[in-house]
Amino acid sequence: QWRLVESGGGLVQPGGSLRLSCTASGFSLTDSAIGWFRQAPGKEREGVSCISFSGGTANYADSVKGRFTISRDNAKNTVYLQMNSLKPEDTAVYHCGRRDYFCSAYPGDFGSWGQGTQVTVSS
To answer: What are the tens digits of pLDDT across the range 32-43?
Structure first.
């Protein structure tokens, strides 16, 4: 069964940093684009960042540009989301999903969702 597992969330003060990991279980990420999405209570799931299968294309939501960096290590079957200068509005459950090769802005185009990891930014 193809499954993604997210980790790395936690409680951090405003201005702090976290690195999230998205690790594949049961399959190789080599041919997968990986998208990070987040969902805050009472809000719809929104796209945060996405990286293509080759790593040649990385997309970011305007709200995180310049603060978040997505990267991948295919040897470790893992995609990372480095989050710096965190703000309270970044608080959400972060999920990763996969699709073949190239990114999409729409959560419905992704599958093999993990259970998510909670990120809370608060003083």
So the answer is: 999 999 999 999
